[in-house]
């Protein structure tokens, strides 16, 4: 005849299994779980790409600012900006629309 577990051992076994299931669920789905970590890593990569794009824009704007400064004046850039902003043309140019 098979031996039965006592009530205390059965309760202990059930509680142990339930705690194991809870901690397994928390390790995967919890606020510090595996899925949250994957989500944070994806957000980090996206933000790093945005940061790099913004750095490129800042570098480009710094270059343009330097080229239009009093210390270093790029006449071609000045001519281009005047044409674009003020809508200027040279006397020998014809505007086609």
Largest sheet: none
Residue share in helix: over 70%
Strand content: under 5%
Number of helices: 3
- How far apart are the first and last residues' alpha carbons, in Å? 102 Å
Characterization of this structure:
The chain has about 100 residues and is an all-alpha fold. It has a domain at about 35-85. Helix content is about 70%, strand content about 0%. It has 3 helices and no strands. It has helices at about 5-30, 35-65, 75-85. It is rod-shaped, with a radius of gyration of 34 Å. The termini are far apart. The model has no long low-confidence stretch (mean pLDDT about 90).
Annotation keywords:
Septum formation initiator family protein, FtsL/DivIC, 97 residues, single chain, coiled coil, mainly alpha
Summarize the structure.
With 97 residues, this protein is mainly α.
Reconstruct the topology from this structure.
Blueprint: H1 7-29, H2 34-67, H3 75-86
